[in-house]
Amino acid sequence: MMVLNLQSMGYATLAQLSPEYGLYSSIIPPLIYAMLASSREIVIGPIAVDSMLLSSLIRNLKDPIHDSVGYTQLVLTATFLVGVFQLAFGLFRFGFLVDYLSHATIVGFLAAAALGIGLQQLKGLLGIKHFTNKTDLISVMKSVCTSLSNQSEWHPFNFLFGLSFLFFILFTTHLGRRNKKLFWLSTAGPLFWVIVFSVIAYRINLHKLKVEDYIVEVLGPIKGGSLKSSSLYKIHVGDEFVVPLIKIGFTIAVISTTMGISVGRSFASLRGNHLDPNKEMVSLGLMNIVGSFTSCYVATGSLARTALKYNAGSETMVSSIVMALMVLLSLRFLTGLLYFIPKAVLAAIILSAISGLIDLKKAYEIWKVDKFDFLACIGAFIGVLFASVEIGLAIGVTISFFKIIMISIQPGIRIVGKLPGTYDFGDVEQYPMAVKIPGFFIVSIKSSVLCFANATLVRKRIERFMTEEEVKDDKEENTFKFVIIDTSSLMSIDTAGIASLEELNKSLTIHGVKLAIANPRWQVIQKLRVANFVDKIGGRVFLSVGEAVELCIGAKMGIV
């Protein structure tokens, strides 16, 4: 529990806030959520991604170093707006929004965010005094190189402390997971090393009178004692920053909700439970709104806390309440003990926590399954890492939507044949044994929409396929008497689509070929009737391809 408190304090510093804000956000939001939420699995707390988003987006409005008070006010205002958006999403049943960020985009975004967070921890890990506020790779590396070239700008002891602590906690955690008898090392190990490194830092800095002169940088005094009074007066929604803050609030609301619900779904599925996204949005929204009134910044489902609850076997929200009360007790009585915790240790704790955000195995799986998805993944990754969070997400979402549009309008045309020994028809490429019926050219439109974007392509492709089939049969004359179009996959058609079918019908009629439609959806057939297309093709509309073939043969090539 102590390590989770340190993690929360580290996330607060990542958000460019005082460490105690991480503790505040681990008390009020979990208590409110425990009373409102439908999920019994999610445990609320600040997370690395939200903290990085707040820092990277709001520092463009206020400098967190030179105007910390104004910056904190904007963070609390953004938190309030995040809650408002989440509440609105839930009340208006916008739960589907969490699925608009494709899985591939999230994988790329999280990997880049993890690297960005890790790069930001170089400040604490190296004890750098003057560090860039930007999160892109180029700016951070420039700042690191500039600081390392000047011995007075960084502290080697900090780097030694941070690297050693990172190695020890990773080793003890790995050992605890590999050997079930040593399971206690996963939780007790990090706490033990925090105490050890704090004692060492105390001994090294013992003879220094001022915190600024310490050889090993430490957290120093942390405001504790109790929760802060109301921060309602710090929330401003009517000043010159309202428009950018609304954009920031919307962006963080979508990402934070997606992260929280993803955590909830993962652990709910392990126990066979169901999670309602709309109810969760309402709970998260109210939680963040009230939290912003009590000096809390954005909180959502915490993977580390939820995993701790799951591994402990807890199945109710009582454990969340207990964890929140434990943080309150720590805030009341133990903040003085945190004075000599090295900042490098805090940075190492965050580095160990974000390692799970980089999923190379999943990225490779996306590459093998769908190259277009991988393009969205790598686009989001490069955009976030080298530009900004907004640009990275915009790239990923744009590529994902472009993929949807391409799939929706791409004219998938398949030649269909009869499967031997059955009454079924199938794609001749998928089923090579399918037999083509003499005198019939049967095609299936695999696109869900026949519209202005693909109607002409569909018509031309059908005509080209007919020509190719005639060439294969070495026939100079037209051998087809009927063209049957299977429209079972077609969900919608517009006026351009109907016009293309009319042009196809005219072209076929000139060559003595009759057009028939098989298995149309009611939305499609209704429009075809209104446009008088059904009359123009002689009423040849059938329930299935088999019925169309049977009746056309039975009519001896007459009009059905």
UniProtKB/TrEMBL annotation:
Membrane topology listed for this record: Multi-pass membrane protein
STAS domain segment(s): 450-552
Subcellular location: Membrane
KW Transmembrane helix (keyword) present: yes
Organism: Lupinus albus (White lupine)
Annotated keywords: Membrane, Transmembrane, Transmembrane helix
Annotated Pfam families: STAS, Sulfate_transp
Entry-linked InterPro entries: S04_transporter_CS, SLC26A/SulP_dom, SLC26A/SulP_fam, STAS_dom, STAS_dom_sf
Transmembrane segments: 31-53, 74-94, 100-119, 157-176, 182-202, 241-261, 281-304, 316-334, 340-360, 372-402
GO molecular function list: secondary active sulfate transmembrane transporter activity
CDD domains xref list: STAS_SulP_like_sulfate_transporter
GO cellular component: membrane
PROSITE patterns, per database record: SLC26A (PS01130), STAS (PS50801)
Coarse class of the protein's main subcellular location: membrane
Keyword Membrane included in the entry's annotation: yes
Taxonomy of the source species: Eukaryota, Viridiplantae, Streptophyta, Embryophyta, Tracheophyta
Protein name: Putative SLC26A/SulP transporter
Source species, domain of life: Eukaryota
